[in-house]
Every structure is written in C-alpha cells, then in structure tokens.
Write a structure and sequence with these properties.
- With 457 residues, this protein is an alpha+beta fold.
- The chain folds into two domains: 284 residues, Aminopeptidase (3-Layer(aba) Sandwich), CATH 3.40.630.10; 122 residues, 2-Layer Sandwich (Alpha-Beta Plaits).
- Helix content is 35%, strand content 22%.
- It has 14 helices and 18 strands.
- Strands 1, 2, 3, 6, 7, 8, 15, 16 and 17 form a nine-stranded mixed beta sheet that branches. It has a four-stranded antiparallel beta sheet with strand order 11-13-9-14, with helices on one face.
- The longest helix is centred in the last third of the chain and has 21 residues.
- The radius of gyration is 24 Å and the shape is globular.
Length: 457
C-alpha cells in the first residue's frame, strides 16, 4: 500500500513545487497589520487544501490571527493520534536591497526555492500536508489519525495559542505532537531534534543622579551607573565562562554517556563554523565542546547595553541612567522561576547603595527534551531514514520553543521535531531558501511516519 502512495508522491514532485509557490506568494507577515487580508488568504489556502483532499478543516478565530485546524478522522483498530503543528505566518522581508528577487515571488536557483517562508515554515509544514493528501488520494484514508494545527502567530510569539488549546482541548487531544520547524545537521545529514533550551530574558535599569553630571566636577564622588553596570555584568561570569549566579547549575543533569558519545561522534567542522559566523575564535564554558555548549549547557549573554552619551564625538558625563538586556538559555531540569529569582538576587547583591536597580522580565519558558526511547521518536527515526536514505543524527537545539513545554503541560504530549531545511537556509534573513530535494524528502518521510505509526498501532 505504501508503495502506491510513494509512487503518487514521485509523480507529483513538480506539482508540489508549484503549489508551494502559490502559498509562498501570499505575504502573510504576522507583524504587519496591513497584511490582514493576506493572512486570512493564507489561512484559507491551507484550509482549502485540507478540505480538498478529504481532511475536515476549519479556520478558528483567535484574539489575533486565525488558526487552521484539521482532522483526518478515526482509523480502524485505533492507534495513536498525532497532532501536526506548523505555522503559515512569516517574518517581514527586511532590507529589500539584500534580496536577489521579490521576496514573495518565489524563484528556483540551483535546486532551491527562494522566497520568504520557503523554509520557515511554509515549505516544511507542507511536507506533512502533501503526504496526508497523497494517502487520501491513493488509499482514501491515513493509516493513523492525523490532526492539524497550523497557526498564524508563531512569528509574533504565539500569544493566542494557549487560549485556543484551552478552548479546543478535546478537539486537539493527541498522543504525540509532530512539527517540522527545525533544521538538518548538514546538507547530507538529516536530523531529528529531541531537545531545546529554555529562555529567561531580563532588562536591568540602573539609575544614579537626577540627571547627567560633569565627569570632571563630580567624577569619583558618587557611583557611576555606567561603571556599575559593567561591574555587574562582569560579575555574572567567571574566567572559565561559568555563570556565577548562586545555584545556577544545581539542577543541571550531566549528559548520559550515550548522548555524550553521540555528540562527540558527529562530524563538526569548527573552522567552517567560524567562517560561517565571521568570528575570529571560539569561546565558551571550559571543559565542553562547541556542540555541547550550543545544545546542552546553560548560557548567559548580554544582548544589549544602552545609556549615557552615545552620539558622535565626545561628552564627558556621568550618566544618570544605564541599561542592559541579558538572556539566559537554560537546559532541562533547570527551573525558570528559580533561575529568574536567583538572577535578580545576584544583580541586586552586586549593585552598590548609590544606584537604584530596576529589573524587568521580557520572556520566560522552560527547556524541553523528548526521551530518546519515546515510541514516536523511534518511528520518526525510521521514517527519516526511509525518506532520505540515511539515518538521522539526533541533535538538540540551542534556541527555545515555548510551545513544546506548553504542549506537554496542556495536552500531555511529547513533541517529535523532524526538520528538513539547512541550518544556513537564511530563515528570517534575505534570500531564504528550501531545497526541492528536501521538500520531496520531507514528504516521503511524512508518508513513512504515518505508515510506521499505523503499523505500530
């Protein structure tokens, strides 16, 4: 039966590219309120595509942009239910002069589809929709129940997703969540991401005198908020790049021998990595490899420093106010509430009495990790190998996906992350692209994923 589906996919490869281009031509920029009609149009395109192949789909309103939900229906003999998550909204274009063509007029260059949203996430989410369509067109049903939740607010923080899930919790009930919004490890290295870091984002404001002061007349007599900010930031890490906040590492679990060996065995070219980033040298927590630092070790980074005199030329002042933005990426088993409070205590402890300290939190979410022996993950590994002809490497991600712990909390479901774009696909940047071969490989993978779950029952 699956051969019939795969033959259908093969016969429709060119059609899939053209239909993806239709969706890519819709400028569904969720940050731009003037794109309201285009966002509605993109949601309708997705819903029509599902309904057109027999998947019951509906556009659900939210307090912001709408969400498309679909259901392939129950299957004989039961089996797990999989909720496919994705998003149809895209990032703004940015500097149009950096694009080689109109960002919303997709072009093919060297086997790549170049357009805004090609990789993030229209191209990747369509792998699942095209695979489901192939099953419906050839067999008349899927071997396992697939539900779909394709939202329009991922690029603006998914602020209305939690209320949507709360309202439609029974309708969205599932055993697993699956998404394709991550990357391969390299051009010839398909990957499954099984963990992401959490995030705590803080803003520190230090206030000293009522207004800026002459540094000659008053320097050396009161705390300078600029000097104090530098001292506070410096106090947060030691010479080995370890975070000095008391209790920061208390709950960090060491890597298992299996994971450590797997990471060490990956072919990672540090020289090429530096060339890609344009950095002259590597740095990070002592005693860990670059991949370990990226994926499995907690970090703390200054994201911005501001205040005082910043215009061209010179102005000899003691600034009245200084600010800093600091983010912490935390790992599984670290508790966001605990780390957030510890950060505040450490900053206040490092500040002298002569400055007033204000700390604002902009973001907080937990890390997420899926057990390596999870049955959905086992099925995904077999599906990726069948779809791409090569076993995937198991990787973690240094970024954060707040939706993953939310799915676990609200639906009780772990998330399987199968990503098909390249790490350098220029997501959020100019000339974003998705290889046609990875589009087709992703469709084949999604076909095998449904088949494998159906066979496992």
């Amino acid at each position: 039966m699956i051969e019939k589906v795969l033959n259908y996919v093969k016969d429709n490869e060119a059609s899939y590219v053209e239909r993806l281009k239709e969706l890519l031509r819709i400028p569904s920029i969720s940050t731009d309120k003037t794109c309201k009609d285009d966002i509605q149009r993109a949601a309708q395109w997705v819903a029509d595509m599902m309904n057109g192949c027999g998947i019951d789909a509906e556009i659900l309103p939210t307090a912001g942009w709408p969400c498309v939900v679909g259901d392939s229906g129950p299957v004989d003999g039961g089996g797990p239910t999989v909720l496919i998550y994705g998003h149809y909204d895209v990032q703004p274009v940015g500097d149009v002069s950096l694009w080689n063509a109109d960002a919303f007029e997709p072009v093919e260059v060297d086997g790549k589809i170049v357009a805004r949203g090609a990789a993030d996430d229209k191209g990747q989410v369509m792998t699942h929709l095209f695979a489901a369509e192939a099953w419906m067109k050839t067999v008349g049903k899927l071997p396992v129940r697939f539900k779909f939740m394709i939202e329009g607010e991922e690029e603006v923080g998914s602020g209305n997703l939690r209320p949507l899930i709360e309202k439609y919790k029974d309708r969205l009930a599932c055993d697993y969540v699956a998404l394709s919004d991550t990357c391969k490890f390299g051009p010839e290295a398909p990957a499954i991401t099984y963990g992401t870091k959490g995030l705590i984002y803080k803003e520190i404001i230090l206030t000293g005198p009522r207004h800026d002061l002459h540094s000659g007349s008053f320097g050396g007599t009161i705390p300078n908020p600029g000097n104090v900010m530098c001292a506070i930031i410096n106090s947060l890490k030691d010479a080995d790049n370890r975070v000095t906040i008391p209790g920061y590492y208390d709950d960090v679990q060491p890597l298992s021998a299996q994971e450590k060996d797997a990471i060490a065995s990956m072919r990672f070219d540090e020289k090429a990595y530096l060339e890609m980033l344009g950095s002259p040298a590597l740095d990070g927590e002592a005693g860990f490899s670059t991949l370990e630092r990226r994926w499995v070790r907690p970090t703390l980074d200054v994201n911005g420093l501001f205040g005082g005199f910043m215009a061209p030329g010179a102005s000899t002042i003691i600034p009245a106010k200084m600010g800093a933005k600091v983010s912490m990426r935390i790992v599984p088993n670290q508790y966001p509430d605990k780390i957030s409070a510890a950060f505040d205590e450490a900053v206040r402890a490092a500040a002298p009495a002569g400055v007033r300290v204000e700390i604002t939190e902009h973001a907080r979410c937990a890390a997420y990790v899926c057990p390596l022996d999870h049955p959905g993950l086992v099925a995904a590994r077999a599906a990726v190998e069948a779809g791409f002809g090569k076993a995937p490497v198991m990787i973690r991600e240094g970024g954060s996906l707040p939706i993953l712990p939310m799915f676990k909390e609200m639906l009780g479901a772990d998330t399987i992350m199968m990503g098909y774009c390249l790490p350098n696909c220029n997501a959020h940047g100019p000339n974003e692209f998705f290889h046609k071969s990875d589009l087709w490989g992703g469709i084949r993978t999604a076909v095998h994923f449904a088949n494998g779950l159906g066979r496992r029952g």
